[in-house]
Type I restriction enzyme R subunit
Amino acid sequence: MNLALAHYNNADNQNIEDIEQSIVVVKDQLDLLGKLFHKFDKSGYLSGVPLQQLKTLNQAAEFVQLTQELEKRFMYIVKRLKSAYDICSGSGAFTEVQRDEIHFYLAVRAIIFKLTKGVAPDTAQMNNRVKQMLQDAIESDGIEEIFKLGDENQTEIDIFSDDYVAKIDKIKLPNTKIKLLQKLLAKAIDDVKKINKITGIDFSKRLQFIVDKYNERKESDVLRSEVLEDFTDEIIDLYYALKKEKDSFKDLGIDFEEKAFYDILKALAVKYDFSYPNDKLIALAQKVKTVVDDKAKYTDWSKRDDIKAELKVDLIILLAENDYPPVDRDEIYKEIFEQAENFKKYRN
C-alpha cells in the first residue's frame, strides 16, 4: 500500500514539475514573440471591436510573411509555445492579457498554416470566441474557396475560372495574396500533371523559380510594393500560361492524352537537337497512344515484365517505321512508359 502511495506521489510530483517547466517555457516564448512583434501594433486585437480584431489578425499574418526568415522563426517559436501551453493551460498561471496574447499568436500561426500547408489549424486550446474569429479571418475577403483547395470533402471546382483570380485580386495584403496565388497555381499544376506529366514538371520548375526568388528577396525589398506586385504578376502570368497550355491540344486536333505523348516526342527532339515535321509528330503521338492503350488494357500491365517488354518492342518498331531520328530509344521508352503509368494511376 505504501509503495503504491509513493508511486502516485512521485507521479504527482513529476506532473507538477512538468507544468512548472511548461509555464516557464510559455513565458519565455511570449517574451521572444513580444520582441519579434515590437514594431507591430497588436492593440486592435487585444482591445478592439471584433472587426478591428479580425483586421489585426490578418495584418499580423501579413507582417509575419515579410521575410521567409521571420516567418520560419515565428512558426518555430509559436510551435514551442503551443506545445508547452498544451501542458499548463489549466494551471491559472497566466493573466487574461497573457492568455489573449497566446490566443493571438496561435491564431496567426493557424492562418499561416492554412496559407502554406492547406491543413485545418489546430484550435484545441482556443476559446470559442477566438475560434470563430479565426474562422472569420480565414474566410474574409472572399477567399474561403481558395482555402478549401485540397480539402477531402471539397467538391470539384474549376480553378481555371476567372472567379478565382478575381477573388484573390481583391486581397489588399500583398504577401498573403502571393501565398494564395502560389497555392492556387500549385494545385492547378498538380491537376495538369495527372494528365500530362512532362508539362506538369516543366511548370512546377517555373513556379519554383519564382517562389525561390520571392523567398530570397533582399531585406530592402520587403516593403517595396512594386517588388511584391512584380512577383504577383509573374505568378498570374504563369497561371494563364498553364491555362493556355492545358487547352492547347484542341489547336492540334488531338485529345489531351495524345497531347501528352506529343509533348514527350517534341521535348526529346529539342533535347537532341533534331527537326521532325510537326504534322508527322502529331500523327506519331496518336500512334504511340494507340500502342500504349493496347497494352494498358490489362489491369496489372505495369507490373508484368512480359507486357512491358512487348510495349517496348512495339514502340521501337513504331518509331523506326516513322523515321523518328536515331536518338536514345531507351529514354523515349522510359518517358512514354512513365506517362502511360501516370494515365493509369489517375484515370477513373
Q: What stands out?
A: The CA atoms of residues 46 and 100 lie 7 Å apart. The chain has three domains: 2-142, 156-247, 253-346. Residues 253-346 form one domain. The chain is about 75% helix and 0% strand.
